[in-house]
Amino acid sequence: MDNHPRSSSVITAILTLAAALCLILSFSSNAEPKALVLKPFKQLSQESAECAGCHKDKNPSIYAQWGRSKHYGANVGCYECHQANPEDKDAITHEGHTISVIVSPTDCANCHTQEVDEFAKSHHAKAGQIIGSLDNFLAEVVEGALTFNGQSPAAVNGCWQCHGSEVKVLENGDLDPTTWPNTGIGRINPDGSVGACTACHQRHEFSMVQARRPEACGKCHLGPDHPQKEVYEESKHGINFYANVDRMNLDSAKWIVGEDYDAAPTCATCHMSATRELPVTHDVGNRISWTLRPAISEKIDAKAKAQGKEVKSWEARRDDMKNVCESCHTKSMIDNFYQQFDSLVVLYNDKFARPGKDLMDVLKSEKMLTETGFDEEIEWTWFYLWHHEGRRARHGAAMQAPDYVQWHGMYEVAERFYIELVPQFLEVVEKAEHKGNTEGAEKARAVLAEILDRPEHAWFSGNEPEEVKKARKEAQAAFKARYLSESK
């Protein structure tokens, strides 16, 4: 080793510098975040520079969020998104500029043409059509009252915040507070466009990380009637995501499953994001094969085909979803999963949904129910069966959450059908008969008798074959014996 004094001093200096760097790094991890430093306004358009100069002080959080966005990096400022034509319905004059408060998909399409085109084809884009639907009737009339400028606060604050409102402009140019603020996914905008990109891409940062996490979808896809977020959290996919979120590489530009991450999928992974073979899509139904929303599930293309439209087939959509699955699973596992999933949907449809609808239809056709919705107990019972329990069971099977299939799903469907719907049906028929509608009562009872005579309902009607009863009793006895022996 060289013992020259200069070498010794150099080594000492290097060690001192290294120690100082380590000390600095150790403090920096716990240091207070630095103030946001943005590029000079001269790199922005003159209009956006004026906007930023004012909103920096008036709305510092919005200014900071924009400063972290890709828009900022591309010199896209306030004016580039909010500029408007004077003839636009929602155009206002603000600080000498013509702008609109709402940035609609039409505005976003100036740069994001493909994304907007794909979104416009999606079921998300149609979500605002809830207005006038059965769900909206509940919020407007049954739950609410038209006490907020002619609208129901229950609909304004509830349904419309997910589905989207029809944004209206008042005579003085202000946005109607019954319809704005609103970031519902199917919002109907004053410029005629549908949708709100900010439903998923939270303004003004538009973070990829935020949009890719399941919480982004959980604003709307949760709760008793469509608990996709809770279902996801129960599944192995959700468990792995939350356990390994630090390995998800959520800020990757391309974010291809199997390349950029392999710990778990999120909602975006399966329904939107790229694989090694598939591009990103903003049509969230592009890989869905069943529709699990209505009382009776159909293949996703059934309605369009019935209307004579040419659309992507359910088989092609399923093939694309399988492509996502193949990033982590073998073909045999995927195929078997889909057989399990399909069998649950078919069971729900054939055992409970179609029979339930047949029972409700005969009551209506024979004039045993009023024309007013939800004024009779059996209407609530039927709604719970398909809209809540039935959806939970189907979504649970689709996303591998067994508790939602069983105890939050099919168990409650069965209880609702046998213990509530059937007795209430007979009560309605009996009342109609007492009022003189004997012919209608006879038709209604015949429908129920035919349903309960089917093999899947034999346990309830008491018509099970003796060998079936015997086999079940033997299985129950074996279980009790095994349970008692294990508990000793």
From TrEMBL:
Keywords: Signal. Residues 38-82, 108-166 form the Cytochrome c-552/4 domain. Pfam families: Cytochrome_C554, Multi-haem_cyto. Residues 1-31 form the signal peptide. InterPro entries: Cyt_c-552/4, Multihaem_cyt_sf, Multiheme_Cytochr_ET. GO terms for molecular function: oxidoreductase activity. The keyword Coiled coil does not apply. This is Hydroxylamine oxidoreductase.
